Amino acid sequence: MYKVTIAPHWKISNAADPALDMAMLLQLLLAIQQDGSIAKAAVSAGLSYRHAWGLLRSAERHFGATLMDKGRGRGTSLTPLAERLIWAERRIAARLSPILESLSSELEHEINKILARKSKAIRLHASHGFAVAALLNEMQEAQLPTELLYRSSTDAVAALFRGECDLAGFHVPLGQFEGPAVALYAQWLNPKTHCLIHLAVRRQGLFVAAGNPLAIRTLQDLAGSGVRFVNRQAGSGTRTLLDLMLAGAALSPDAINGYQSAEFTHSAVAAYIASGMADVGFGVQTAAQRFDLDFIELARERYFFALPRAALDDPLIRQTISILQSSSFRATVDALSGYDATDTGKIMSLADAFGKPGLAKPGSARNST
User: Fold this and answer.
1) Distance between CA atoms of 194 and 189, rounded to whole angstroms?
2) Looking at beta carbons, which pairs linking 271-277 to residues 24 or more positions away fall under 8 Å?
3) Kind and range of the H or E element at 317?
């Protein structure tokens, strides 16, 4: 089985100099940030000390500004320009990762289908998340043929109803907002023909800069004067949860500066705040932790994969369930900040998960799609 990897690659140019390729420079700057030493960073980046120095000096001439601050007795640190270049790389990766991973999966399937003369693959459509990414890694290591498409929770479940995927990933809040969320998804889920696999419980809440300089604690604080908010895209499960919570708090979206913004991953929201371009966002705890942000928990939710009951007998689905139920995968999910893998891999009926109220009558979505 062949593996396709697509990564962002960017350059910076000006009127006077050739374009500066950022790939090796960013690798070196990241190593300096971690090691505090050009010599150690050169080794980490696989470069000679001389080559590393030459690369840094060439980049400084290109920008007309320094990238390093060498203080006596305190090693080498990065200047604000170098820090911003690293931030830009992380923001690009955070924003593009679902698109590139989905495209990689599509290309993998087409290449392997031609070379192996096989077409069967697990079609996984899911809301982007850290546990989903961990599962994809495990499936690839097990060489399970997979077609991945990251899309909103509602789009994923609707695709399952139309027969366009085998597994549909979506998330539902625990507590008072579970009913309205279940009612949204239930128009595409038939209790007689569909079932669920529990992936994880995860924490959702507010992302703020380290130390919470604006003392943001609640949703009402989002409407404060001067508070800049960054949102997820319309249709995402996280945006749906936020809208339900705002309605429950009688807080108008129009009162929130930045409500109409749209980022497509939790990490992209976190990167936006870490850059200083916004003050607060809403998403899962893992993203806040990876960008060194403070996190204020507001809700917990369950993430599920929906699938046809008949698919439980499919050999590829059985292998996927075995991965989900393995102790090693549960340990991986538990290690994610804000995730709980207690019920990971548990197979449930819709009634077991949500109770009977709010479940759609079989076929009701045919009149709404």
Assistant:
1) 6
2) 271/87, 271/90, 271/91, 271/94, 271/95, 272/91, 272/230, 273/207, 273/208, 273/209, 273/230, 274/87, 274/90, 274/209, 275/84, 275/87, 275/91, 276/209, 277/228, 277/230
3) helix 315-324
Of 179, 222, 202, 198, the closest CA to residue 324 belongs to 198
pLDDT of residue 229: 97
Which one-letter DSSP state was computed for residue 323? H
Task: Measure CA 179 to chain center.
Answer: 25
CB burial readout 183-215, b (16+ within 10 A) else e: ebbbbbbbbeebbbbbbbbbbbbbbbbeebeee
Per-residue pLDDT averaged across 335-344, rounded? Answer: 97
- What one-character DSSP code corresponds to residue 315? H
Inter-residue long-range contacts of 156-160, CB under 8 Å, 24+ positions, other chains counted: 156/125, 156/126, 156/127, 157/185, 157/188, 157/189, 157/306, 158/188, 158/365, 158/369, 159/125, 160/125, 160/188, 160/189, 160/194, 160/306, 160/307, 160/308
The residue written with tokens 């916004």 in the block is 278
CA distances from 191 to 124, 200, 203 (A): 20, 21, 27
113-170 pLDDT tens trace: 677 655 588 999 998 889 999 999 999 899 898 888 998 999 999 999 999 999 999 9
Residue ranges of E strands in 153-311: 167-173, 194-208, 229-230, 280-284, 294-308
Predicted local confidence at residue 341, as pLDDT: 97
The token duo for 245 is 């919570």
| 95-112 tens-digit pLDDT | 787 788 878 877 876 786
Distance between CA atoms of residues 12 and 130, nearest Å: 31
